[in-house]
C-alpha cells in the first residue's frame, strides 16, 4: 500500500523506531529529550526499560515479546488482547479517589472497547479463520485489591509502559508500511496519537502526585533507562511534538 500522509508524518510521533544493531529500538520524546524504552531484535526478548524491568509487569518485560509485528494480521492479532487487558485495568479506576483517574479510566474503556470491536470485525472480514493472539502474556499487575494511592500509582506505572508498547506496535505498522488497508493505517495512527497523549498526561500526574518521575517508565532522559539516548545526537528533525489535542479526561 502506498504511504499516506499519516504514514509520512509518523516520524514525529512521541515514539519512534531506530535501527540499532540489526534490531529495532523504540524511544519516547518529551520535554526532557529522548529516552530509550527498549530494543527488539526478531527472535530475541525486549530489553528491560528500567532496572528490574517495568515494575509490576509480570516477569518484567517478557510480555513485550508481542511487540514485534511483521504484518497487518500480526498487529490485529496482538493488539486485540493488548487492548482487552487495558480495558480491564482501566475499569479498576472506577474505585479511584481522584476524579482525574476515574475520567481517564472511563475514557480508556470507552475508546479501546470501540477499537476492539473494529479490530475483531476486520479480523473476521479480512482474515477469515484467524483469531486474536491466544498466547498473550500480561503486562499489567492485578489491581483488584489495591486502593487509594496504591491503586493510582500502580496503574500509572504499568499503563505508561503498556501504552508505550501500543505506540511502538502502531509505529511499526506506519514506518514499515505494513498496512494492507487504508483503514488500518488510519487506525494505527489514531492509536499512536491517542496513547501518546495519554502517556504524557499520566507521566505528569505521576510526577505531581508521587514526585518520582524517574520511577515511571518513560521517565526523563537518564532516569530509569539503560542508555538515556545520550548518543542520539542530531534528533532535531524529530521535533514538532506539539499539537496534543484536548481530552475530556484531562485535569
What does this structure look like?
The protein has 251 residues and is mainly alpha-helical. The chain has one domain (5-238): Ferritin. It contains 5 helices and 3 strands; from the N terminus they run αβββαααα. It has helices at 5-8, 72-91, 99-126, 148-175, 182-210; strands at 15-20, 23-30, 33-40. The protein has a 3-stranded antiparallel beta sheet with strand order 1-2-3. Helix 2 (72-91) packs antiparallel against helix 3. Residues 2-65 and 220-251 have low confidence and may be disordered.
Topology:
Elements: H1 5-8, E1 15-20, E2 23-30, E3 33-40, H2 72-91, H3 99-126, H4 148-175, H5 182-210
Antiparallel strand pairs: 1-2, 2-3
Helix pairs in contact: 2-3, 2-4, 4-5
Q: How would you sum up this structure in a few lines?
A:
With 251 residues, the chain is mainly alpha-helical. It has five helices and three strands, in the order αβββαααα.
Category by helix and strand content:
mainly alpha
The number of domains is 1
Helical element count? 5
Range of strand content: 5-15%
**Main β-sheet: number of strands, strand sense, barrel status?**
3 strands, antiparallel
Fraction of residues in helices? 40-55%
> What is the CATH architecture descriptor?
Up-down Bundle
Strands, total number: 3
**SSE arrangement, N to C:** HEEEHHHH
CATH topology: Ferritin
Low-confidence stretches: 2-65, 220-251
**Strand order, largest beta sheet:** 1-2-3
- Give Rg in angstroms: 17 Å
